[in-house]
Amino acid sequence: MLASACAPTSEAAPAAASDPAISGALFVAGKFGNTLSKVDLASGETTAQVASCANPHELATSPDDQHVALACYGGTSVDIFRTDNLARVKSIELGENARPHGIVWHANGHLYATAEGRKSVVVIRDPLGETRTFEYGTGREGSHMLAVSPDAMHAWTTDLGSRTVTRLDLVTRRAPLSVSVGEEPEGIALSPDGETLWVSARGSDMAYALDPQSLERVKDVPVGDFPLRIVIRPQGDYAVTSDLADGALSVIDTATGAKVRSMAVSSREEAEAKTQVTILFSPDGERIYVAETMANTIAEVDFASGEVLRRLPGEGGGDGIAITE
């Protein structure tokens, strides 16, 4: 299954129905086509597409929604584009063999990105201005996905190769703390209040709630098959995993730590062909967007009912996604 997830596909995305009640735009990194696309959420149509960089992955929008940053996983840079017309305004080098993947554009205006090839996290201060970079080593293999605390004092990575979660102190630069968490931890998300760190371990079919400082496991939650990503609803009441091998989403009540339901995005038989990866909530928490990489589509799911409302274009093997209002 994982081998097939790395191969390009020529399947065309079906036309998406319009929804005038929805505003904003979805940005899609096409990791096979090396593209960045903008999808208008009202019309459901791609309104702009540009060449990006080699094997682009995760995306993050600026606090004012005027820019989107792209982690160039096949290279060494974080590239920044305008959200209105996708004009590239900056390319920020992170160093030899950086392979940036996870990325966060913090409310403080700084960018944070994993540099997987360098076993580190890079903080990019004033990314649209003079731009200064600061590197923090994890010392772990495959530091892949990233979360940053609301006060920007700490960052956490999932380290696929080392099978660990690592806490970095971004202020005092104390030695990083790493602990083993399940088999192949990959997804990571911090609760809005910064009090709980959620991790999905794709090899264990589990989600774990951790104390962010000690990294002690607080809750162990069985979820679906191969939970590649985990996100927290903006309201903080639910966590959701993207279960690649099931073609489904597992919904966890964050207060009780119990899985309360599963939402089918595609059938298990279709799961490998579609290969759902990244998931993202709308800002109001009412919809969830699911990147179906091999199908070149982004499924839009009503969170309350679990109904797939429509499929938006995700051209070029859409993987990383970001949203603006």
Q: What do you see in this structure?
A:
By secondary structure, this protein is mostly beta strands. It has a domain at 52-180: Neuraminidase (6 Propeller), CATH 2.120.10. The chain is 2% helix and 51% strand. It is built from one helix and 28 strands. The strands form seven sheets. Strands 3-2-1-28 form a four-stranded antiparallel sheet, with no helix packed on it. Strand 26 and strand 27 (308-313) form a beta hairpin. The longest helix has 7 residues, at 268-274. The chain starts with 24 loop residues before the first strand and ends with a strand. Residues 1-13 have low confidence and may be disordered. This is YncE family protein. It comes from Qipengyuania aurantiaca.
> Largest beta sheet, briefly?
4 strands, antiparallel
User: Can you tell me the CATH architecture of the domain at 52-180?
Assistant: 6 Propeller
What's the total number of strands? 28
* Computed Rg: 18 Å
Given helix and strand content, the structural type is: mainly beta
CATH superfamily of the domain at 52-180: TolB, C-terminal domain
Q: N-to-C SSE series?
A: EEEEEEEEEEEEEEEEEEEEEEEHEEEEE
The helix fraction, in percent, is under 10%
Count of helical regions: 1
Q: Indicate the CATH topology of the domain at 52-180.
A: Neuraminidase
Question: Based on CA inertia axes, which overall geometry fits?
Answer: globular
